[in-house]
Design goal:
alpha+beta, 2 domains, 5-stranded antiparallel beta sheet, 14 strands, 26% helix, elongated
Length: 310
């Protein structure tokens, strides 16, 4: 369901609506605070560093390395003149000696001269070996983990299509490689009250016009028909906003490069819903057979004609 334009060349950039809708947050994680389960994410340091961005992981590793070397440098200084150094009282030289020990790069002019220093050097060498093994495993896992680079539109549009109202979203594959056999799933998180007085939050599936694609390489337009079978049938704009806590859109498929399953997910809060707008074209075929993709237009929307309002 690539969003292909019938025009052969890109038109001028569209004018923004007089009152553009507010752009919601694009976080892929719902803001949740959990109490009483006795678990903290930093109890599982390896998993936390694996899921965080590279910049965060490298910063934490550097801070840990720096902290350990400062601790061992302080311990070396507590032993007095236990290092063969130009200035035994220099903390910087003790720190440098600690770096040489923990990294196993070998000693130059400095070496341990007392049993206290030798004991600390042995312990630090073991700590350095463990850190090297854990760091190498972490780096390899982050490098080798297949990920999908999928961008989701900021808005979920409700517009007239094929004679009826539809929920419409747009996604684009940033890498441009093919995700084979892409499966798409859309659900809404709602809060309902049972006859017995229980308040429940549950996920309700929203069937899609097309919930799979043989290949996803450029862009997809994802639609849910608000027909008689839809959980949103017959509801007003205010009722839909009040009922929906968030929409959850998931895309899963086989990455042709890694030959492994990848997925991408996006949460849309209720204020991401925009009525009576449509996405502007972002894919334009040229006369020479080349297709131009304007990725920066993924989020661009424009008002629908008055005759096509929901």
């Amino acid at each position: 369901m690539a969003s292909l334009s019938r025009s052969r060349y890109p038109p001028a950039m569209p004018q923004k609506p007089a009152n553009p809708p507010r752009s919601p947050s694009r976080n892929t994680d719902m803001p949740v605070v959990v109490h009483g389960n006795g678990w903290r994410r930093w109890f599982d340091v390896y998993h936390e560093l694996l899921r965080r961005p590279w910049s965060f992981t490298l910063t934490v590793l550097f801070i840990g390395w720096l902290f350990l070397n400062i601790i061992f440098a302080a311990l070396y200084q507590t032993g007095g003149d236990c290092i063969s150094a130009e200035d035994p009282e220099s903390f910087f030289q003790a720190f440098t000696f600690s770096v040489q020990t923990i990294s196993s790069i070998g000693y130059g002019a400095m070496h341990p001269t007392t049993n206290w220093a030798r004991l600390l050097a042995n312990i630090e060498a073991f700590v350095g070996m463990v850190m090297m093994a854990m760091g190498t495993g972490l780096m390899f896992a982050k490098f080798s983990r297949p990920t999908a680079k999928v961008d989701f539109s900021k808005h979920v549009l409700i517009q007239q299509r094929y004679g009826g109202p539809h929920l419409v979203m747009r996604v684009a594959n940033r890498r441009g490689n093919r995700i084979v056999g892409a499966k798409i799933h859309l659900a809404m998180l709602v809060e309902e009250r049972t006859e017995e007085g229980h308040t429940l939050r549950k996920l309700v599936d929203l069937p899609l016009v097309r919930d799979h694609s043989p290949t996803f390489a450029i862009t997809l337009t994802i639609m849910h028909s608000v027909d008689a079978d839809s959980p949103l049938a017959g509801q007003s704009e205010a009722a839909i906003r009040d009922r929906i806590i968030s929409l959850v859109l998931t895309i899963q498929g086989l990455d042709e490069t890694f030959s492994q399953t990848v997925h991408a997910q996006q949460y849309y809060p209720s204020d991401a819903l925009v009525w009576n707008h449509r996405f502007t074209d972002m894919v334009f075929p040229r006369a020479d057979g080349v297709t131009e993709i304007y990725h920066q237009k993924l989020h661009d929307i424009e008002p629908m004609p008055e005759a096509n309002h929901v």
